[in-house]
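Worked example 2:
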Amino acid sequence: MSVQEVNNEYVILTENLCKDYTYYKKEAGLKGSLKNLFHREKLIKKAVQNLSIKIPKGAIVGLIGLNGAGKTTTLKMLTGIIMPTSGKVDVLGYFPFDKKKEYLRRIAMVMGNKSQLWWDLPALDTFELNKIIYEIDDSEYKNTLNSMVEIMGVEKQLNVQVRRLSLGERMKMELIASLIHKPDIVFLDEPTIGLDVITQYNIRNFLKEYCVKYGSTILLTSHNFNDIVTLCDSIILINNGEMIYSDTFKNFQKQFFNQKYFVLKLKEPNVDEFISKLHLENDIEIEKIDSNSIKIATDNNKSLNILKNISGNFIQELSDINIENISMDDVIRKIYQK
């Protein structure tokens, strides 16, 4: 499957994209070091394998995977930071690693753990520098900057040294610096990492408004699934460098968000006896939380019957009952455990 088509214009195309890293096995100790001088065993780490994706203009796509799955490596190939080992890649009609000026003017990359801001200078100085680098017209620069600063609510921090800003304030400034030239594609690598919930919310709102206003495409990696749920039209799941799922987020929800949890707390610590009395079907998952609590996982179409069974026959044995929808964390965990 490919990512949802917004229109017929794909701005990111890859075909069997691969990236291998070569390294050498080192044996421990002095003897091993001497041996490596004359004979080294070469090993290959396959970071990305046969990745084929199509992303249309204006889409917001989430690239999801465990640590080491190949997400950041993929972004680095798409932005031209590293060269693919093999396969085809086309972004806005360019081969990214050529690093043509025309291409670099049309993209931006923001990494949550990297900074382009000058530590001892106000963020406004970086904005002015980027204005010169990207040859932005004075009036256009002023209008874009004022709009972004207003949305982000950072008017009072513009002339403060970057090192005196909080982490959230710095991240807001990073986004403004990266988007001041209004790129067609924005690559985001963990943009909300380490931020408080209010700052995360503000950044997500900013990105949504930015895309609506300028029609940009976003490819986002994040372990914060609120980013994915709030922003993304489509998602791509990768594992060990390979794509294992790609579809619209709506279809993803229909396929995987079809479970409910019943968390039952018993008045007496007799979990095993209580479970045996429920007589649930074999495909219904039951997890023992502690000596007097269990969690029942069931499909949505069976949840009503289970609720009727519990409330009609066992309500006197319960001190509490809680009904929960399956979380994004649980969905991803189940997919990767298959």
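Residues 1-7 have pLDDT under 50 and may be disordered. Residues 197-214 form the longest helix (18 residues).
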